[in-house]
UniProtKB/TrEMBL annotation:
SUPFAM superfamilies: Phosphoenolpyruvate/pyruvate domain (SSF51621). It comes from the Bacteria. The keyword S-adenosyl-L-methionine does not apply. InterPro entries: ICL/PEPM (IPR039556), Pyrv/PenolPyrv_kinase-like_dom (IPR015813), Pyrv_kinase-like_dom_sf (IPR040442). Keywords: Metal-binding. One of its GO terms (molecular function) is catalytic activity. Signal peptide: none annotated. This is Carboxyvinyl-carboxyphosphonate phosphorylmutase.
């Protein structure tokens, strides 16, 4: 198994056939794989990631793959988070529980292979309401080296996410991983209830998710300082917010009690926008004007990728 893994990690990409074999092997050998990861990096990194939520404000510049993860780490990031949308787009899938598990697992593996810091993975709604499938997703990302997950409720009743959190915790415990489960509630982001009821509803959901085994509450879409302060002072869970227009400055968020700030898909959206502009200019005029955007030389970026976690 170790020999196989070493051979696997030396490769920069996976063919479809090898991805399928990797997942088949992962499903059959999840426990052994998790044990191997614990002995190397996972056991300390899971605890490190929990510690990062206890004081100050953890800022996560969400990435779409290994290259971006390494760049963000090189800037001094203490942890790396994925964007589910960015990862889906990078593989040619729409966001919204569409990314195949084989590709997700391979992407996570490619990131943990080169990172020195904790990695948390957005698994959307667990890619299914089938609890057995949710368990397979969690097992795959944990076995691939992740020490945290985001999992969301969406428009489903909160009891659905409660059951998914319980399953995720059971899987993590089975593999001896102190998994940080960040429960995203879409009460604000998707206006699930009238505005006057949102604060009470997200407080209620945070309590349900905490009881189920969650370690954090992601109040995506919440921007009002008074509501943020109330949630932080009421919930037993560290509060995570999504960076967006109208949100207070990081210093103010920290004063209010926020412990985590995420970029979401914004960085991926900007990168695709920049690529579109450069590509259009090149297609139309045959000229590349990259001076305003290019922050890395080929050599610097390639050198980063040559480093191993």
């Amino acid at each position: 198994m170790v020999a196989y893994r070493r051979g696997l990690t030396r490769q920069r990409s996976y063919s479809v056939r090898r991805q399928a074999f990797y997942f088949q092997w992962l499903a059959c050998q999840g426990r052994q794989m998790a044990t191997f990861r614990q002995e190397s990096v996972m056991k300390p990194l899971d605890n490190v990631f929990h510690e990062l939520h206890k004081n100050g404000l953890l800022i996560l510049a969400n990435v779409s793959g290994a290259g971006g993860a390494k760049v963000v780490e090189s800037l001094g990031a203490t942890a790396i988070a994925t964007s589910s949308a960015g990862m889906a787009w990078a593989h040619g899938y729409a966001d919204g529980n569409q990314l195949p598990l084989t590709r997700l697992a391979a992407s996570v593996e490619s990131m943990t292979r080169i990172l020195h810091v904790p990695l948390t993975v957005d698994i959307e709604a667990g890619y299914s309401d089938d609890l057995q499938h949710v368990a397979r997703v969690v097992e795959a990302v944990v076995a691939s080296g992740a020490v945290g997950i985001n999992i969301e409720d969406g428009a489903a009743p909160p009891e659905v996410l409660v059951r998914k959190i319980e399953v995720a915790r059971e899987v993590a415990n089975k593999h001896g991983v102190n998994l940080f489960i960040n429960a995203r509630s879409d009460v604000y982001l998707k206006s699930l209830v009238p505005a006057s009821q949102r604060l009470d509803e997200i407080i209620r959901r945070a309590a349900l998710y905490a009881q189920a085994g969650a370690n954090g509450i992601f109040a995506a879409g919440m921007v009002t300082p008074a509501e943020i302060s109330t949630l932080c002072n009421t919930s037993t869970l560290p509060v995570n917010l999504l960076a967006r227009d109208g949100l207070s400055a990081p210093e103010e968020l920290q004063r209010l009690g926020v412990r985590r700030l995420s970029a979401g898909s914004s960085i991926a959206e900007f990168l695709y926008g920049a690529m579109e502009g450069l590509a259009r200019s090149f297609i139309e005029r045959g000229q590349l004007d990259t001076q305003a955007l290019k922050g890395f030389t080929y050599g610097k970026l390639n050198g980063l990728m040559a480093e191993r976690g």
